[in-house]
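Quick check before the chapter quiz. The format below is the same one you will see on the exam, so make sure you can read both the input and the output lines.
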Amino acid sequence: LSRPNAASSVPMPPATPVEPGLTCAVPAGTQLADVSVDGALCTVVLSEEFAACDTDEASAQAAVRAVVLTLCSIEPVERVQLQLLGGAGLQYCAIDASIAPDSAWLE
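Here is the expected output.
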């Protein structure tokens, strides 16, 4: 994920190369437009490019879960509310409520 208007925001770390045979669930070009933390809830606004994951249920869930698991690995975050710029949602994975990691995701 990268942030637009980097001059006015905290720079994001460089992307980590993906090992051969692995793919990144978050679509290329996805940018972090805004992020805030209120207690255990992290609200994240992603660019419209994130919607490219919404081609089928497995792809949409993989992208959403990747973001949720990553953010919930940071204290004190326990739940993530995803939003897309422009207010769009996803067809194959609901993002209208906050999401907490589920241990079944890792099975």
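If your answer matched, good. The beta strands are 32-38, 41-46, 79-84.
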